[in-house]
Amino acid sequence: MADSMISGAGPLAGLTVLDLSSGPAGAMTSMLLADSGADVVLVETGARSEVDRTAYRVWHRGKRSVALDLSSPADRDILRRLAATADVLIESLPPGVATDLGIDTAALATRNPRLVSCSIGGYGPDDQRPASDALVAARTGLQWEQRGVPGTALNRISGAPVPLPDLELPDLPANRFGQEGPVFVRSLWPSVGAAYLAAAGISAALRARALTGLGDHVDTSLLRGALAAAGPNWQRAEHPEAEGYWMWVADRRAPEGLFECADGRWVHFWTIRPTLVLEAAEADELVIDGQKDDMRAGHGVRIGMDAGDLVVLYYYHELLREAFGKFPSGQWVAFGAARNLGIALVRSPEEAFSDPALLKQGCVVEVTDPELGPIRHAGVLLEFSETPGAVRGPAPRPGQHTAEVLAGLGPEAPPVETRPTGAAPLPRGPLDGIRVLDLGLGVAGPWGGRVLADLGADVIKVHALHDGYWARTHMGLATNWGKRSIALNLKDPAARAVLDRLLATADVVAHNMRPGAAERLGIGWEQLRDRFPGLIYCHTRGFEDGPRSTRPGTDQTANALAGTEYEDGACRLGMPPFWSRVNLGDTGNGYLWAIAVMQALYHRERTGRGQRVGTAIINATLLLTSYALSLADGSPVDRPRIDAAQRGLSALRGLYRLADDDWACVAVLTDDAWADLGQALDAPALAGDPRFATAAARQRHDAELRAALEPVFARWTAADLAAVIDKRGLACEIVSRTYSTELFDDPEIRRRGWIAEADVPGVGRLAQPGLLVDLARHPGGVVRGPCLAGEHTAAILAELGYDDQSIADLVESRSVLTT
Q: Do the beta carbons of residue 54 and residue 386 sit within 8 Å?
C-alpha cells in the first residue's frame, strides 16, 4: 500500500473490518478500530434492539451497515464472500453457529489465511448460558466487589484477617454503609474490559501478520473482561502481611475523597492532602489565588497507606466535609487549580460533552445524526501524531450501505491449498522482538507496559532509586508482571548515559510524566524523534492536553469529570456519587496506550516510520460513559438509567433479594426471555398480564412490574433458583459473594492459563489474573513475576556492554540500584 494512503488517515487505514458481533463489547471494539481508520462494515442480521438504542448511536458511529438474512443461502454466501476479503472479523456468535454459517476459524483460514478473526463470548467457548454485562457482573461477584470489601478483596482472597476489625465507621455518605446488598451500576465493566482485550489482541495480531503474512484467531469474553475490570485488586498472596504490600485505598471502609459543597454539588478530592483546604476554609471567603510558596500540592500533612492511617483519614474527612460544605463547588475547583490540588467537579456525562477543552482535544466529538441532528459524545480516544484518527460520521441506518458494499463484492475465493512458507509463529507472542522502555508512574502508566509484556514484548521498567516501596505494594506488583527492572538516578549524568544506551535499543518509550518533565530529562519527543525515526513514543496524561494537563490526574478525578460517578451513583435523583472499586480508569488508560502503541507498530511495519502516540485517563472514563450522548445544546437524550437504590435499570434489568438473603440479577431483553422467566419462577400470570405483555407496556408499568416481582423472588432460595437457572438457561444469575475467592483454584480457569503465579520476595507465592486474551497462532503469556525496583539492573547493564567494574562503579556512585 502506498504511504500516501496510510499517513494521516489513521494507523489502520486501508483495513476492512467485518463486525458480526452483538452487544456492547464487540461494538466498542470495532468503534476503536473505525476511529483508527479501518473501514468497519457492520453486518446486521435482525432488528436493532431498542433497549440501548442511544448507546449504539455512539458505538456504531463511522461504520457502514449491511443488512443480511442469514436464513437465506444467498445471504450466507454473501457473508462468506465478505469474510474472504476482510482483514478483521469480529463475532460474538453462540457456540456452533459460526460453523453452521461456514465462517468458523478453520473455514475462514482456508479462504483468507491473512484474516484476523476475533471471538467475544460470554463465559467460555462452549458455554451456552445467556451473557450480558449484568449477568456476568453477577456471576463474577462484581456487583458486590465494586462497593468494596472490608479489609480489601486482597485479604478476603488470601484468607487474611481484616485490619482494625473493630474500627468504628463514621458517616461517609458516598460509601453508603447503610445500604444493603450488592449494587447495580450503569458502567459496563465486563464489556469495556472485553473490548480492551479484543482491541489489544486484534492490534497485536495485525502487527504479527505484517511480519508473517498470516492472520490469527483472537479469543476473549465478558468473563475475562470482568477479570480485567477487577484489575490489580484480585490477588492471592501467601504472605499478605508482608511490609508495604497492603494499602487502604481498596478497603471498603476508606474515605473516597468525595465531598458535598455549599451549592449541593459534589467534588472529588484526590489524593487527600488536607492542609491547604483546611487552612483556606478558616476564612470567611475562599481566596482562590495563593502565595507562591503555597502552591505545592504536597504542602503540609501527607497520609500514609497503612491500616492505622484509616483513623487519621476519618479525622481529616470530617474536617474536610465541614470545609468543603462552606463554599460552592466552582470556587473549590478554582482553588484546586490554583494550588495544583486534585479537586474535580462530579459532572453528568452531558456536562462532560459540553466541556470546551474536551471538544478541542477531540476526545468529545460533535456529529450530525440523521434523526437527532447535531449530537455530542465520546470521541477519538487514541492519539497519533502522524496518522491521526477521526470519527467519520454518525451511526448508519440499518442496511444503509448494503447496495454500496455488495456492488464492490467479488466472487467467493476458492480454498487455499497451501499456506505461505517461512511464516513460523513468533516464539514469544505477537510482539516478539519489540523492546519497550516503561517509565510509567503509578498504575495508569505502567499498566500498558504489562499488557505489552503479556503479548510478547521485552518490557524494561525504568524505576527511580526510591521506587522500592511502591514496587512492593499490591498496586506496584500488579502493574509489573512480565517486566525486567533497571533502577536509575536520572538526575545523574552517568545514569542518563545508561538510559541513552537503552534508547538506542528501544522500539517504544512510554511515560506519563507531567508536561515538561521528560524534556528536562532529555527524553521529550522532540528531543528523540530525529535521533530515532522509527521510535514509537507514548505520552499519556490524566486529562486533555489543555487547561488541566498540569494538574494531578487520577482515576478518581477523571471518573468525576467524565460522568461515571454521577451515573453510577444516581446523582440526578439526589444520591451521592459512587466511585467503584472495580474500575477501568487508571487501567483503562493503560489498555488504551498499549493499543495505540500496537497500532503504531503495525503502521511502522508497513512504512518504517515511528510516531508519537498518547491517550489520557479522561479518555478511558469517557469510554465508560460512551453509552450516553447529548444534543449539541447539552440537552440529554433518553437512555436507561439506574434507580436511587442502585437496584437496576428497570424491573427486568436489575437485582432482587432472595429468601435466604442472597440476591439474584435478571437481564431480560426479549419477550421470549420474559415468558421463560415468568414460567420458571412459577409466576406465569405475571408474564401473561397485559400490563407486562410487550416491551413498550413493561416500560410504562415498570414500577408495578418490579413491585410484583419482588415477592416472587423472595420465595426462592439461591440454591433452588440456581438449579432452575441452569436447567432452563434463564436470563438470570445468582449474585456471587465468593467468586474472587474461588477463582484461583478453579481448574478450568487454570487450564486456560488465565491466572499468573510467581514467587515474590516477602509476599511469597503471588497469583493474579494474567493474560486474558488468547491468540491461536502467536500465543503470548506471562513470562515472569512482577519485577522489583532494580532487580535486573546488573543483567541489563551487561547486555548494554558494561563490564563488571563499570557496573560496580555505577552502583557505588548511586547512579544505579541493584537488588
A: no
Give the pLDDT confidence of 388-444 residue by residue, as tens digits: 999 999 999 999 999 999 998 876 666 655 444 457 899 999 999 999 999 999 999
Q: Is there a contact between 103 and 78 (Cβ–Cβ < 8 Å)?
A: no
What three-state secondary structure class fits 750? helix
**pLDDT average per 10 residues of sequence, the chain (819 residues):** 48 97 96 98 84 92 96 92 95 88 86 95 83 96 94 95 93 92 97 98 98 96 97 95 93 95 97 93 89 49 86 94 98 95 97 98 97 97 97 96 90 58 82 98 97 98 96 97 98 96 98 94 96 97 93 95 98 97 96 98 97 98 98 95 97 96 94 91 86 91 96 96 93 96 94 95 97 96 96 98 97 95
310: enclosing H helix or E strand? helix 309-324
Q: Rounded to whole angstroms, how far apart are CA atoms 735 and 216?
A: 35
Report the pLDDT value the prediction gives residue 416, as an integer from 0 to 100: 58
3-state helix, strand, coil in the chain (%, to 5): 40, 15, 45
DSSP 8-class letter at 650: E
Q: What is the pLDDT of residues 734-783, one digit of tens each?
A: 999 999 999 999 999 999 999 999 999 999 999 999 999 999 999 999 99
- CA distance linking residue 566 with residue 503, whole number of Å: 43
With a CB cutoff of 8 Å and minimum separation 6, the contacts of 226 are 136, 137, 140, 142, 189, 190, 193
The whole-angstrom separation of Cα 150 and Cα 700 is 39
Question: Shortest CA distance to 598 belongs to which of 36, 193, 31?
Answer: 36
Number of other residues whose CB lies within 10 A of the CB of residue 343: 25
Which pairing describes strands 653-657 and 648-650: parallel, antiparallel, or unpaired? Answer: antiparallel
HEC letters along 702-716: HHHHHHHHHHHHCCC
Closest CA to 818 of 520, 561, 442, 468: 468
The pLDDT score that the predictor gives to residue 6 is 41
Give the residue carrying C-alpha cell 516510520: 609
Torsion of CA 522, 810, 484, 588, to 10 degrees: -30
Spatial separation of the C-alpha atoms in residues 526 and 511, rounded to whole Å: 15
Taking the C-alpha atoms of residue 678 and residue 245, their distance in angstroms, rounded to an integer, is 48
The reported pTM is 0.96
149 — phi, psi (to 5°)?
Answer: -125, 130
Contact between residue 715 and residue 659 where contact means Cβ atoms under 8 Å apart: yes
For residues 584 and 229, is the Cβ–Cβ distance under 8 A? Answer: yes
Q: β-strand 816-817 against 458-463: which pairing, if any?
A: unpaired
Between CA 155 and CA 248 the distance in angstroms is 11
Residue type at position 214: L
What per-residue confidence (pLDDT) applies to 418? 44
Q: What whole-number distance in Å separates Cα of residue 804 and Cα of residue 807? A: 5
Which pLDDT value is given to residue 422? 55
pLDDT value, residue 29: 98
Q: Where are the alpha helices (DSSP H) in 506-626?
A: 517-520, 525-528, 555-562, 564-568, 586-607, 617-624
Cis check: omega of the bond before 271, within 30 degrees of 0: yes
Roughly what angle, to the nearest 10 degrees, separates helices 24-35 and 189-212?
50
* Residue 408 near residue 81 (C-beta atoms within 8 A): no
- Cell output for 366: 460533535
SS3 721: helix
Q: Which amino acid is at 55?
A: A
- In eight-state DSSP terms, residue 24 is H
Query: How far is residue 668's CA from residue 101's CA, in Å, rounded to a whole number?
Result: 27
Could you give the 3-state DSSP secondary structure of residue 266? strand
* Residues whose CB is less than 8 angstroms from the CB of residue 97 and which lie 6 or more positions away in sequence, other chains included: none
pLDDT computed for residue 48 by the predictor: 75
* Phi-psi sector, 415: left (phi>0), alpha (psi -120 to 50), beta: beta
